[in-house]
Design goal:
The protein has 364 residues and is α/β, with parallel strands linked by helices. It contains eleven helices and twelve strands. It folds into three domains: 105 residues, Response regulator (Rossmann fold), CATH 3.40.50; 68 residues; 153 residues, Histidine kinase-like ATPase, C-terminal domain (Heat Shock Protein 90), CATH 3.30.565.10.
């Protein structure tokens, strides 16, 4: 049985109209005579929906919804304002504070029931999608992460065991080769762990001041160095086609850590999904107070459906083309860009090329 909290100072409207009609529809109704009592009951009872008057003694409806949104336990409860005011400004103020709907007094029972049903159905749909997304993510983690952790770890263990068993007889060249295997695998494992931790941090809704408070003074040389460092890992520095049209130094509304991660992961994706010897074209320019960058590779490409499904642990056509990595790359870059109110776009032609475009706002 869904529980609805009704916060209304008019006792006849609260107890003998709203409560009556809702209970008749099968809802469990909790009532409060003012905003203070309503806020306390909302925190204690955690109802499925709240109907709240605006003009009330002690604490008005605006103050109630603000207090609810400051508490993670009550922030997502659907909220319907109830008011005798028909002024559009008041309605707009309420919606800006996060209200889901409005009922203007006087109203008929069907309007009340329709608004309540609609909000609860939307909440159920949202929760269903969230659970579905969580299940999909859990399935991907189960299928992808064990392999991605074990592959470099197996190399580290195998090579180190050989070194321990044959240390007295192994040649200097063989020793170097084993150490290179261990080092490369350790870096791969470290990269996976760092991306995993960053993904979890981003998905846990980092406060705005942690994602948007920093500014990076960026230069063409800095961007070029970040790209070259990634290409060097794949021995593909000769494949870079670099086109830069930016001033000597530009301030970007993003921390250097996040900016470098975006450039690294997009470049890394270009390398993974195109063959050595094919060009990787990167351009950078200033347009409408944004740093606009394009990364184009001439590789396997993606379908529109695959672009829409880009997410953590998502790997396409693994049975056709073996991929190192957990599918974090583009997801992390996309999430970081979006958290900074910037633009992230992908265009692709299957079997021909993929272009990733980002537009990062400049600081004042």
């Amino acid at each position: 049985m869904k529980r609805i909290l009704v916060i209304e100072d008019d006792v006849s409207l609260r107890e003998f109209m709203i409560k009556y009609f809702l209970e008749k529809e099968g809802y469990q109704v909790i009532t409060a005579e003012n905003g203070e009592v309503g806020l306390a009951k909302a925190t204690q009872e955690l109802p499925d929906l709240i109907i709240c008057d605006i003009m009330m003694p002690k604490m008005n409806g605006y103050e109630v919804i603000q207090a609810l949104h400051e508490n993670p336990a009550t922030a997502s409860i659907p909220f319907i304002f109830l008011t005798a005011m028909s002024d559009r400004a008041n309605i707009r103020d309420g919606m800006n504070l996060g209200a889901d709907d409005f009922l203007t007094k006087p109203f008929v029972s069907q309007e009340l029931i329709s608004a309540v049903n609609k909000r609860l159905e939307k909440k159920a749909h949202t929760e269903s999608r969230a659970n579905e997304k969580l299940k999909t993510l859990r399935d991907k983690i189960t299928s992808v992460l064990p392999h991605e952790f074990r592959t470099p770890l197996s190399t580290i263990l195998s090579a180190s065991n050989i070194l321990l068993d044959e240390l007295d007889t192994i040649s200097k060249d063989e020793l170097r080769e084993m150490l290179e295997y261990i080092n490369a695998s350790a870096k791969r494992l470290n990269h996976l762990i760092e991306n995993y931790l960053m993904y979890i941090s981003l998905e846990n809704n980092i406060p705005e001041n942690e994602t948007q408070g920093d500014t990076t003074l960026c230069t063409a040389e800095h961007i070029y160095d970040q790209i070259i460092n990634q290409l060097r890992k794949y021995n593909r520095t000769q494949d870079l086609v670099w086109k830069a049209e930016i001033p000597s130094s530009i301030p970007i509304k993003m921390s250097e850590q996040y900016f470098n991660k975006v450039v690294h992961e997009i470049t890394d994706n270009c390398c993974k999904f195109s063959d050595a010897g094919t060009p990787i074209t990167v351009s950078a320019k200033i347009d409408n107070k944004h740093l606009c960058m394009e990364f184009t590779d001439h590789g396997i490409g993606m379908t529109k459906e695959q672009i829409q499904q880009i997410g953590a642990f998502m790997q396409f056509n693994r049975e056709v083309r073996e991929q190192q990595g957990s599918g974090f790359g583009l997801t992390l870059a996309k999430r970081i860009v979006e958290l900074h109110n910037a633009t992230f776009q992908i265009e692709s032609i299957v079997g021909t090329q993929t272009t990733v475009r980002i537009a990062l706002p400049l600081a004042s």
